[in-house]
Amino acid sequence: MNLNNNKKNQNILIFGGGFENKGAESMTLVSVHELMRLYPNNEIIVISNSDYPSEKVREEKFNFSIFPINPNEMLYFGMDIFKMSYLLFNILRYVIRRKGIFKFRNKNKFKSILKNTFFSIDISGYALSSQWDFFTNMAFINRIKIHRKSQIPYFIMPQSFGPFKYRKTERIILQPLINRYIKYPKIVYCRENQGFNLLSKISASNLMKSLDLVLLSKEIDENALFKHEIDYPVIITPKNSVAIIPNSKNNKFSKENMNMVYINIIEKLVELNKTVYLLSHSREDLKVCKEIFNNCKNHEKVIFIDKEFDNIELSFLIAKMNYIIGSRYHSIIHAYKLGIPAVVIGWAEKYRELTNAFNQNDFLVDVRDNFFDSKLAEIINTMEKNYNNESLKISSLLVNYQKFNPFISIEAKLNENT
């Protein structure tokens, strides 16, 4: 029996996506597109942690629903400890500031959506790890708890996990919750061996390995996702161009001044007669791009377009590059998907395993290493000589990887024991 036949018109929810950066946006659009294709009779709803884009933009732009809910509302809805915190917060709010009860706007509406849900997927990308704060981890676990309580099937799509080196107080709370709830999802897709090995000690039966879902997706039908055809401006790029895509998070992990590192890279590329494009892959990186551009000596060879691109527009630009120098994980994903090589400046295991999958480890530097920037000039020289061959290598491997679609396994799991 095909369970989907009995679940027509029910909701399919997408958690962990959004529009704050191009990685989240691309995972959201790919997921919506795949679910629309596989489940055309169901309502696809993106559960967003923010009100961006605005209600007006959502109504005008997309062919799918976006439901904004504050992360605090989600925590209150799922975790008893946060219900107690909410009560205490309101008591203090009244006693100290003489203000009324803080009311959550969307809690009841979310309950209604959940009651009519077929299944949900999580596309967080990277949320369960001691590299992130306590509440990011709690929010991830909380979503599983909500679905377990309601007995709604839950699928965690390809993402990174670990390390789990929490501080003692965090570990006392988080580790038992991870041990309990990570067993509930029908599938937990791990992008890297590190995450797979860590979680296999807790729950091996529901684990699967998969590369990033954006990388594995093929072309999407823009007409299915957008209400109106988007007329993108034509940006003419010189043939000998390289894009630099920085990551503001690098400053957290690097011992070097990252802005100076990027400025030195630009000087090196200009020496190689390259036109350099500074591209932002996230709203928070726009400021970094401006700072780098304002401190460059060779402005005539450096192009910074001060705007937030959408995924399609950004892909148009990346496709015209000889190669990129990227620090955002999904900027590398977008480049590889287009057959464009990358010099990768990373800070986590996910960068190493991604470059390894495409035989590109020679072009990876880790910002946590001492004097990593001294290696960059040599790596850029090597890439400059070999980018055509590296492009062919990446494209060849991609064809084989794209034979697997992580969304196809969902229906098989849903139909088990029915």
TrEMBL record:
InterPro entries: Polysacch_pyruvyl_Trfase (IPR007345). Pfam families: PS_pyruv_trans. Residues 21-347 form the Polysaccharide pyruvyl transferase domain. This is Polysaccharide pyruvyl transferase domain-containing protein.
